[in-house]
Amino acid sequence: MLYKSILYFVQKGAKSRQLHHMPKAPLPGEPTKPYTLTEIPGPRSEALFNEFSKIQQVDIQYFGDYQRSIGNYLADIDGNVFLDMFMQVSTLTLGYNHRSILGALSCGGNQRIIANRPALGLFPGLEWPCKIQNTLLQPCVAPKGLPCVFTAMCAACSTEHAIQMAFIKYAERRRCGKDFTDEEKESALFNKPPGCPKLSILSFEGGFHGRTFGALALSHYRYITKVDLPSLPWPIAPYPHYLYPLNQYEKENKQEDVRCLEQVEELIEQYEKTMPVAGIIVEAIQCEAGDRHASPDFFLQLQEICKKRSIPLILDEIQTGGGATGRIWAHEYFELNIPPDIVTFSYKMQASGFYHSPEYMPKQPSRVFNVWMGDPVKILMLEAVLKTIEAEDLLTHVCYVGNYLLRQLNTLQHEFSDLISSVRGRGFIIAFDMPCKDTRSKLMYLLRTKGVQVSGNGTKTIRLRPCLIFGEYHADIFLEILRDCLQELPEN
User: Fold this and answer.
1) CA distances to 151, 161, 225, 234, 269 from 231, in Å
2) Given this model, what pLDDT does residue 25 score?
3) Residues 429/293, Cβ–Cβ less than 8 Å
4) Please, which residues have CB within 8 angstroms of residue 184's CB and are 6 or more apart in sequence?
């Protein structure tokens, strides 16, 4: 069933179990278990926070000690050591102070690249095209059918430039190959049509695509990020909200797909006369909204709508790319008939930017452009990450350990059915729901006092985002502490 594939996947060509899980022991240099010595945050973190907050508005949980952090463990400046199941907002691919990353950054040649910080959009070094080809454009890395890549500084920049590409292509089609008119050139400088046409990008309720101006207009998950800020009146479609367990609600969830897709088509029609939709952006998994998954069938039909309307499907893989799901790209699970038009990336990919098909390459240089065009340091780190993923077969490892963790969480769900529900995930993008936000906060507090760092998202969800070297050994430590905390919750 299509809906079953949202949570579970068949590992094709899996090798022997012994090759694809970490040994039942800590990794070299790691602590044997997490521990806390103080309240969290501890006194040193509290004092530093009070000083720092005088110069910058901050929302700090505690200050890390990155000299002492190692592997799956994050140390803080008060001597506490956490099993980190969040990994710097899911951006650390290989954990803390991994030898391959440190080795890449200590290389003399790489240090000269870092020290001279080239403006890649104008003066890239001799090695830059080769570095891009050997990292982002490797056949096993680049999404199939997308041979072009645009590098950017950050996740939100990736979104901003991707939607610019969509707008440009839409306008080019309208212009039928003709050059810009004088009126277009002049009006664009004053933010007026026809130079700045009234176009829109359709996004989804609960989506999150960044906090810069255009990206924020596409994000709909927390009011605090948007209130008081002017925005753009672009269309917002409902995203499927499934009932769990999936195998018991297959009919209802298919109806939910139909409802949402019908709304997408209605919105496109509604906006056609006033602010035509030039593209649709959607996350492969809605991570900030509470790890909301949609079925492969939903994405297949969404792509059909885009093709019928001749507008791009922009798949946001900023949080899901880089091996987090057990494949480099989460959309590989959807088995789309043709590639997406644009795929954005960042986080576990280290570098940021987007892939696109050749037809979206702008005809004139500098149309989609920034001076930096990304950060060479991130490409050097990505190079080390990709070599490690291949050498240690980490994607297979993520599939194996991810399934193990999901099975154990499902067991806890049966045991603590009044507290845990809707266990779900792909690879190491895993989540479960609590009865309410208050209960979630209590559980997260208990976990942190026992040395486990997790994160909340949505209204009542706890999400897990371990790094790719997280093993069964670490999963068992987490599960034991989680069980203890569930038993300690009031009225359990």
Assistant:
1) 26, 17, 11, 9, 22
2) 74
3) no
4) 194, 195
CA 389 to chain centroid, in Å, comes to 18
Domain ranges, residue 143: 109-390
pLDDT at 23: 57
Contact by Cβ (8 Å): 458, 424: no
Please say whether the beta carbons of 203 and 236 come within 8 A. yes
Q: Contact at 8 Å (CB) between 238 and 260? A: yes
Residue 371, domain CATH: 3.40.640.10
pLDDT at 27: 85
Give me the average pLDDT of each 10-residue run along the chain (492 residues): 40 38 75 97 97 92 97 98 98 97 95 94 95 97 97 97 97 92 97 97 98 96 93 98 94 98 98 97 97 98 97 98 98 96 98 97 90 95 98 97 98 97 97 98 98 97 98 97 95 56
**Number of residues that make up the chain:** 492
Number of domains in the chain: 1
Q: How far apart are CA 364 and CA 185, in angstroms?
A: 14
Dihedral angle over CA of 172, 174, 177, 178, nearest 10: -110
Assess if residue 96 is contained within a domain.
Answer: no
Helix (H, G, I), strand (E, B) or coil at 147: coil
**Half-sphere exposure (CA, 13 Å, Cβ side) for 209?**
33
Q: Give, rounded to a whole angstrom, the gap between the first and last alpha carbons of the chain.
A: 35
Residues 6+ apart with CB under 8 A from 484: 450
- pTM check: above 0.85: yes
Is 471 part of a structural domain of the chain?
Answer: no
Distance CA 103, CA 71 (A): 15
Tell whether the torsion through CA atoms of 394, 396, 402 and 407 is positive or negative: negative
